[in-house]
Amino acid sequence: MKKILLTAVIALIGMSAFAALPKAGDKGYLYNPASGMFINKDAKLAATGDAVTVINEGAAAELEGAEYFRFEFSSGNRLNFNGSAGLIGTGTSYAKFVVKETEKGLIITHLYPNAQGPEWMRDPDLTGTFIVANGEELGFKAFEELDDFGYWQFIDAQLIDGPTYPIALTLPTAADKLMTVEWINEPYSATFTPTADLQNSFKIVNLDVTDFVKYGYKKIVIEFAEPVADGWNVHAYGEGNDPFFSVKDATKYEVDLSEGNLIHDLTAFNWFGCRAPITISALYFSKYAVGEDPEPEPEPEPVATLIPADNAKGYLYNINANKFVTAEATLGEEGVLFDVKDEGPSEGKISWSTYTTEYPGRTFYLRRFYTNERATALSTDGGITCTTMNGYAKWAVYEVEGEGLLLVNLYTRNDFVQGQCLGADESGALTLVEEAEAPYWKFLSQEEYEAIATSISSVTEKASAKGIFNVAGQQVKVLQKGLNIVDGKKVYVK
């Protein structure tokens, strides 16, 4: 988050708070105050600009006190000079500018009409000229001919786009009887403890808010970390000590920017006898009116997922067959406990295979608990086994809503294919199958495992009975979705 230091120095030398040279990586808008217009992505002037990111390449040899800059739009194109075509917003090369900070603003000259540029781009008539606003186009003038339309500002993107903009807390000078200051958090939370009467916790002098009002800001907000003790006051408009307002028990104080464009003395100070500390937790401009606050964003609803968390321990259960992965890496009524090692997000589409699911997922190792054996795809002959091999065992795990998990092989050995899914043949041996044939899986906790294992035993006891039974061993009249036992045989209904 960018921070600006607003002090009496700015007011004294008459510079705008937005005229300073930006730093490498800063994102903002190139604005011409005289025309009231921004540079857009087509390198023309418009009421609404396009933010650029600054690439700073150090001190410029051509102009004392200037620096080399490139300005890159979010599209990747850069503010560019293209010979007789003038300034355009395209390309990634030949886009270097010389920028200097002056008291009236930034002056910008294109670098490549001079001898450093490629010959086809040179224009002797423009060498040494500076960019100016010319109607809705951008033009060029020599330095001695520059008028107000040749001075620019680089405005922080957050100032234009955000609902708030931070103010850096300026420390009081020695003349302000500086008290002990303890910085406790970023950005700029500070606890101030007075040692005498009428001491300033922070102080900003002659704060010109004209530009902030122009960009839609309506107030300055001072936030306190806890209710303020009796004896603390806030002073804003007006010179001297009047007017000031008590902030006893407050957690926030708002300064209305409609009362004037110059805040002479913005400070919180203690009254006679008050030695209680005060903590300023935030100081910022806001585009909300006095007394208004943004609606708090609702807490996101927790997303239920079948995908296990990192280090989760449980059992891999084949929903379609109502069986567990056993220690021998086959399907059976008694499963083996796995330990999940989460290796990060899965791509959602495995581009090097025919697997094209768009479900978001994770990448896992499935490791036998208390051993280093992993569920591993070895070959089509060996099938899926639990092996002591450390590698070759990575799976992409995707959730299909309302169904279960798909486990996708990420390793190719012999004629195994990356992108095939974990499945099982009629004998219960684990194998790899295409997505269309893949069964769904669940990763069960100990409690879930025991409950289902008990139901499997119940079903087994009724396997010879005539009729339709569910996985709980209860007789039903019609087939249910999922696994059914019909006259002793397993029937799966999707």
Please characterize this protein's 3D structure.
With 494 residues, the protein is mainly beta. It folds into four domains: 8-161, Trefoil (Acidic Fibroblast Growth Factor, subunit A) (Trefoil); 166-286, Jelly Rolls (Sandwich); 313-446, Trefoil (Acidic Fibroblast Growth Factor, subunit A) (Trefoil), CATH 2.80.10.50; 448-493, no CATH class. Helix content is 6%, strand content 40%. It is built from four helices and 38 strands. Strands 1, 2, 3, 4, 5, 8, 9 and 12 form an eight-stranded antiparallel β-sheet that branches. Strands 23, 24, 25, 26, 27, 30, 31 and 34 form an eight-stranded antiparallel β-sheet that branches. Strands 13, 14, 15, 17, 20 and 22 form a six-stranded antiparallel β-sheet that branches. A hairpin with an 8-residue loop joins strand 18 and strand 19. The longest helix has 16 residues, at 446-461.
